[in-house]
Model the fold of this input.
Amino acid sequence: MRDIVAKEFPGYDADGIAGSSRRGFLKLMSASMALAGLTLTGCRRWPQEKLAPFSSNPAGWEAGVTENYATVWEFGGVGQGLLVKSFDGRPIKIEGNPSHPFAVVSSGKYGASTLHAQATLLDTYDPVRNTGILQRGSKAGAGTWDDFIEGIRAAIAANPAGFAVLSEATASPSVLDMRERLTKAFPQVKWYEYEAVSRDNELEGSRLAFGQSLRSRLYLNKAAVVVCLDADILCDHPASLRYSSDWAVKRRSADDGQMSRVYAIESTFSNTGSVADVRLGATPDRVEAVARAIAAGLGVAGAQAEQLSAAEESFVKAAIADLQKAGAAGVVTVGYQASPTTHAVAHAINAKIGATGNTITFHADPAGDRPTHMKAIADLATAMNAGQVATLLIIGGNPAFDAPADVNFAMGLGKVGFSAHLSQYDDETSRLCKWHLPRAHYLECWGDARGWDGTASIAQPLIEPLFGGKSVIEALALITNDQVKDGEQIVRRTWKQSLATELDWRKALERGTIENSASPVVETAVKAISYPTIVAQPAGTFVIRIDANPSIYDGRFANNGWLQETPDPMTKLVWDNAASISIRDARAMGIEQGDMIKIETPTGQTMEIAAFLMPGQPLGVLTTTIGYGRGEAAGPVGEELGFNTYAIVTTGAPSIINGAKVSKIGKTYTLVTTQEHHILEGIADDAERVRLGAVPGQSGTIIRDAFFSEFKSNKKIFPRDKALPLQLYDSPRVLNNTHAWGMSIDMSACTGCGACQIACQAENNIPIVGKTESVRHREMNWIRIDRYFKGDAANDDVAIVHQVMMCQQCENAPCEQVCPVGATVHDSEGLNTMVYNRCIGTRYCQNNCPYKVRRFNYFDFHHKDPREKWGRPWPGLPDTQQLDIDKVKRLVYNPDVTVRMRGVMEKCTYCVQRIHGATIKKRAEGSDVKDGDILTACQQACATEAIVFGNYNEADSQVSKLRENRRSYPVLQDLNTRPRTRYLAKLRNPSDDAVAPAPEEA
Amino acid sequence: MTTMTTSRFGVNIDNTQDDPRVRAPLVVGGKHIQDVTNAVSAISERPTTLGWKISFAVALMLLGLLGVCLAYLLTTGIGVWGNNQPVGWAFGIVNFVFWVGIGHAGTLISAILFLFRQNWRTGINRMAEAMTIFAVMCAGLFPAIHVGRPWLAYWLAPVPNQMGMWPQFRSPLLWDVFAVSTYATCSLFFWYVGMIPDLATLRDRATGRVRQMLYGFFSLGWTGSARHWHRYEKAYLLLAALCTPLVLSVHSVVSFDFAVSQLPGWHTTIFPPYFVAGAIYGGFAMVLNLAIPARAFFGLKDIITARHIDNCCKIMATTGMIVSYAYAMEFFIAWYSGDHYEKFTFWNRAFGPFAWSFWVMIFCNAVNPHFLWFKKCRTNMVLVFICAFFANVGMWFERWEIIATSLTRDFLPTNWWTFRPTPIDIGMLVGSFGLFFTFFLLFCRFLPVVAMAEVKTVMPEAHPHGHGEHPEDAAVRADYHPDEHHRPQGGTH
Amino acid sequence: MSTTIHPNPYNAATEVDIETPELVGILAEFDNVDQVVRAAQMVRRAGFTRWDVHTPFPIHGIDYAMGIKPTILPWLVLGMGLFGFFGGLWLQWYANASAYTFIISGKPMWSLPANIPVAFECTILCSAYTAVFAMLALNRLPMHYNPLFKIERFRRVTQDRFFVAIDAADPRFDEVRVRDFLNKLGALAVERVED
Done:
C-alpha cells in the first residue's frame, strides 16, 4: 500500500502527516488545542500553544476523551448542520447537529445526517488529496502560493476584462462577501456559477408562478395528503432530512388512528415512490399532464383537463378527492427534473387548496437572480472558446468532467492563458489548468453556509489541513490581497454585525447555527400561468432520465470507498452506474441483466451503458445516474468505474432527454448488486411470495404489511407472537439483568436511504472490499437494507418493502452453540457478543445464522487495495494487518472498536462500545443509563427515527412500549431464535375508494 | 489340499459361484502357503517398475500442486477460495466429508467383516486399511486449513490456550475433532498391528542390511510365538470390536455438523444412517478403484480374487440403494413436514441453479448401483471399475449438494447468492488426490499389500486335522518320564 | 512369561570362557500344522514349562494343545474404556460448566446430550490405546534381539515352517534327551540355540 501511494503521489510523506513523527503529532495536537475550546459542552479556552505535553494537561483537556464540535458542510450550495466527534485532535465520526433545524429529528432527541455528510469523513483522510500546489508546464511541476498570486495578479493586470471566476454553487455569506471584495478589486471580473446537479427548474417554475426566484419549504408533519410529481423529497433533496423526519411523524401516527397518504407519479423508481401509498410510473410528459389534470380538477384557473390513460385517470381522481378533502393539509410537490410549468402548476394547486403558508412556505433563494447553471456554463465556454477569457479561476467543482457535452468546456479551457483550479483533488479540471491549488477539506478550515431555509451556520475546523491547502475564502483573500487573510478572521468579519460580541460568536459556534438567520417567509400570490402544449413522447423512443448518483452524487465522491460500496437504495448496485429499464421493455427488446445498450440522443450524443432490469421502472424511461466513468484522475478507488453519462447531457436537456433511441449491442458487463431479485426465476419467486406474506390470509415470516384501512378495522390482522414453543431448557437465569438491550425497527418509517449503513461503517471501522470482492458477495457491512419486491414483478406491478437487517441479538442464538472455540457468546445483558481475538474463523456461525448477518474477513480488507483482483500473498506474520494499514487512512478509525484482522468473523454488536461507554459514565456518576442515553450509530443517523434502541427491562422505555405495539413482530419467529430486534409491520394507506392503480398499459 | 482345490476347480477357476456342497476357496490358482508369501513379498522385493515410477511422479506433481495452493492460501487468506457470504463452507468441507467417507470402507472391511467372520476380507483388508489411513490424512487436512486463522487451529484441542479458554463442547465441530482424530488413531493401530507379522516376514526374507534393519525395527522382533499369537489375536479382536461402533459413529458425528444446525437441507434427522451408508458406498467404490488395478499390476489375481470383487460390488449395490432411499425420504419429508423452507430447499436442489449437479448425483448414486444386479457386470473388471468411479464422483457431488446448495439459498431471499469455485478450490481438490496416491503408491511399493499371515489362516492347510493321540504317542512319551496327571503349565497372563 | 529362549543364568554365572557359545535351548522344525500341534501336545504332557511354539500364522487349537490360559487383556481394555468415558465427561463438565462458563444459545451450562459424542470417542480412544500397548507389553515387545534370529532356518518361521523350542532353563531340560524326544516327534531338524 505504502509504495503504491508513493507511486501515485510523489512526495507523499505518510509519517509526517500521521503524527507518528513528533512534528506531525504536534501539528495534530495543536489543531485540537486550537479547537478544544469551542465545544458544545462549555466555553473553555486556553492559550493557543503549539506544544501540548501530556504531562500537564491544559484545563478541560482530557486525553482519550472524545469531544463534539458543531460545524456545517455546504453541499450543492446548501449547508448541512453537523456535529463532529473528535478524538485526540482527529475527527472520527460525523453526525447531525441536533440544534440545526434541518438536521434535528422530530422528537428532538438527536440530529440526523445524510450518508454523504457522514462519508465526507473518509475524504478528510484520503491520501490522494496530498498533491501540494501543482504548476503544470513549469520545470518543477510544483509551485508556491506566492508564485501563484504573483502569476494571477500579473495575468489579470495584463487583461482585466479577461478575468473570470467559475464557482460551484454556494450561498456562503463569507464567500459572497469575498466575491464582492473581489469585484471591488477587479471590477471587470465575471463570476459564473455551475453545478452539474442543478435545481434551476424549481427557480424557473417559481419565476413563472410568482415572478421571483423562491425556494419552497414543505411542512410534511402537517400534511395529510402529499402528492409527489416526480419528486424524491425523502432522499434526493437538500432538505431530505427534515422532510423525511416530518413525513415519518404522519406515518407513525397510524398507531393513533391517522396516517398521511402519499401519492407519487414518477418517471423512475425513487425511494419516495417506494414508500408512497399510491404510486404510478409514467414518462415525464405524462407527469406534467397528470399535474395539469389535477389542477383542472381542482379548478385552477386556466388549467385544462388532459387526455389520460385509465391508470392515470384513477390516480388523478383519487388525488383530487383527497386534496379537496385535505384542503390546507394537503400539498403538491415537484421534483427538480420536472419542467418549470409543472412546478408552476403545483404552486397554483397549493395556493388553490390553501396549502401555501400551512404545509408549504416560500423563501428567497440566496442567489436566485443569477443566470441558470446551464446558461452560465454555456456562456463561459463560449467566451473561452472565443478567446475572451485570459484568466480563469475555478473554485471547486469539476467542470472539465461534468460540464454538458455540447459546450466544449475542456477545449475552451485549453485556450485560457492563466487557469487555476482550487480543488481537493488533482482532477480532470485541475489537469487541464495551469495551476492546481489544494483546497482545504471543510473539516480543516473556517467557513459558513446557509441551510435550505437560509439558516446560517459557522464551519469550524477540527484539524489543521493535513495536506496544506486553503479554503475558498482564504484563497480569494490572497488574490484580492485582503488585509485579513486568516480564515477565522474573515468569517468573523462577515458576521461582525449579527455576532457582535465574543459571546454571540461562541454561542453560534456551540449551537452550530446563528439564530434568526433564516430567510423570511415570502407571502406572494400566484400569477396566471401559461400552459404550453405538452410534446408527447415519440413512439418507439425512450426518455433518458439522468439523476444524481445516490452514492457518489455528481462524481465528486468517486474516490470515497464508503460511498462506492453503499448500495443504490433501489437497485442495490455498488461500484457502478447503469441504465435502469423496466422488465417489460427489457423483455420486448430482449435485454438481459448487464447487457450493454447504446443510447443515441436526438441532439446526436451517444453512449454505451449496461442495462439493469428494474421492476417498477416506468415503461419507456431509462433511468441512469451521473458521476461514473471517470478516468485515472478520479483517484485509485474511483477510476475506470461505470459509464460517463455526461456524454449525453446537453444544456438543452440536462436531466430529461426525450426521444432517445436505445439499441442493444452485443457486449455484456458485470454489474454488482449486494442483493439479487429473483423475479425472472419461477422457483425463487414462489419461495419469496410465502415469506413476504404475499399469500392471501397468511402473514409473512419475514415481511408483514397491510393497508391502513385493514389495520384500523381488524385488530387481529397481525398475529401476536405465538405462545413460545416448548423449550427443552429455560434460558439461564443470569440473563435477568437490569439491562436487556433491544431494538425496534419501524418498516413504515424506513425510506431505505442508507444513511444507517455509512454511520455503522464509520462507527465500527468496517472496511470496504472492492468491486471484485463484492462480486463474490463478501461485503462487510454489518447493517444492510433488504429491498423486497411484492406483487407481479414480471409486469412491473410491484411495491417495495425496505427492511433494515443487522444482527438480531437472538436470545437462543443459533450461532453460539456451533462455535467450537466459544468466540461468540451471550453476555448478561442479552447481547450476542463477538470476541474477535478468540475467533479462529470456522464460519460455522455464519452458516447457522438464519439472518446471515455475520460478516467474515476473507482477507485483510483494511490494507487490501480495493481495486486489486486477487488477494496479494501476505508473507507477514499472522494477525499483523495493523502494521500494513496506511498511516493516514488509519486516522479515521474509531479507537473504541477493534480493527479486525483477516480470518475472523464479525457482526453488529448494538454498538457495544457506546453502550458501555454510557453505562460506565453513568456508573461513575452513581446513576444508571436511562432511555435515550444510548443511541446506536444507525439510530443516530436515521432521520425518520425508524430505529429505536433501548432497555426492555425499563418498563417505560420506548422499545418496551414499541414491543407492545400491535405491529411489532420478530423476523422468522418460528425458528424460536427469540430475537431482541423486533420489527414494526409496514402500513400502506391507499385511498379507500380508489383501489391501488394498475400499471400503465404497454 | 492344494491338489484337491486345483482338481476341483482347475487352476484359473471362477470362485464367484456358490456351490452349497463345497466352500469356495478364497485363494485360487493352486497356491501353497509359501506361494502366498512369495507372491506378496515379491512386490516389495523386486526392483521398482517403470509403471510405478511414472504413477508416483504424477502423484508427486499433484502433491506439489496441493503444496502451492496451500502456501497461497495460508499467506493470503481463505478469500482465495470461492467461499462467500451465504456460502461459508464449500470445497474445503465437501472434500473433508468426501475423504472421511472414503476411509470408512477400510475400517468396515477390517473390523465389521472380521467380527462377522467374513474370511474373504483377508485378501483386501490390508489395502483397504491403508486406503483408510491415507484418506483420513486427506480429510484431516481440510478442516485444519479451512479455518480463517489456521495457526490457531490448535484452540480446538482441549488445552487451555493463552486466554485460559477451553473449547465449547456443544459444537458439533468439536465432536468432529474428537471423532476424526480417534478414528485416525484407531485405524492406524489396526493397520499397524495387523502388519507386524507380515513385516516380520519381509524382515526374514530381506537380504539387504537396510531392509533388514527397517523391517526388523518395525516388526518389533516378532517371532511368531504361539503365546504372542494368543494375545495378538485377542488384541486384534478387541480393536475390531472397538472400531465397529467407531466407524459408525464417525460419519454420524460428521453428519451432526449439518443435522444439528437449523439450515433447511442440513437440519435432518435422517443424516447419520444416510451418511454412513453413503460413506460405505463410496468407500467400497474406492476400494474397487484401487484393488482392480493393483491385483492386475502386482499379480495378485489369485489372492484378491473375482469373488472379492464380486462381494464388494454386492455391498456397493446394497448401500447404494440405501442412499437412494435416503434421497427419496428427504424429499418425502420435505413435502410431508409442510415446512416451507424445507420444501423450497429440496425443490431448489432438483430444479434450481445447481440442478445439474443434483442430477449428476442421482445418476451416480441412485441409478449407477443397479448395474450391479447383474453378475455379468460384477465379474467384468472394466465395468466394475467404471461403476465404482461413478460412485466416487456421485459421492463428491452428494456432499456438494448438501453443503453448498443448501447454503446458497436459505431463509432470507436477500441473502441468496451462488458459488463459483476458484482455481485454488479446484487445485486443492485435485491436489488432495496427489497426497492420497503418493502415500498409497509408497505403501504398495514397500509394505505387504496383502495380510499374508491372515490369508494363510484361511487356507485349507492352516487347519490341523489330527485329533486325539497318535498310536505311538504313548510310547514316545513313555520314555520321557511319563506323567498322565500333568496339568497344563506355562500358561500366560 | 518366557516367550523366547533365555540364556541360563546359572551357566552364565559359572561360565568363565566367554568364547564358547552358551546353550540356551533346543529348536525343532516341523513342516505342517498337524505335526506341530501334536508335538505341542506331547511337549506339554511331558511336563515342560519353559518352551514355546513358533508359527507363521495363528493355529486353531494350539492354545489348547499348549495349555495357554486366556489373557487378561480384555479386562485391562474394559477398565481403561470406562476411565475414558468418565474422563471424557469430566473434561467437558470441567471445561464448560465449571472452569469457564458462558451463556450459549440460552442453554444450561451443563446439558448431557451435547456431551455424549465426545465421551464416546474418549472411551474408544483409551480402549484402543490399551488394547495395543497392553498387548505389546504383555508380549514383551518390542524385543529386537533374540538368539533365535541367529538360526538360519528359523527365518522361515514367518513364512511356512513351524517350530518348537524348549528352553535350556526348563527344570526338566536335558539336551541329549530333548533332541531325541523332538526327533521322535518327526521334526525335520533339531538344532541347538546358542547365545
Notes: Confidence is low (pLDDT under 50) at residues 10-53, 994-1002 of chain A. The radius of gyration of chain A is 28 Å. DSSP finds 31 helices and 39 strands in chain A.
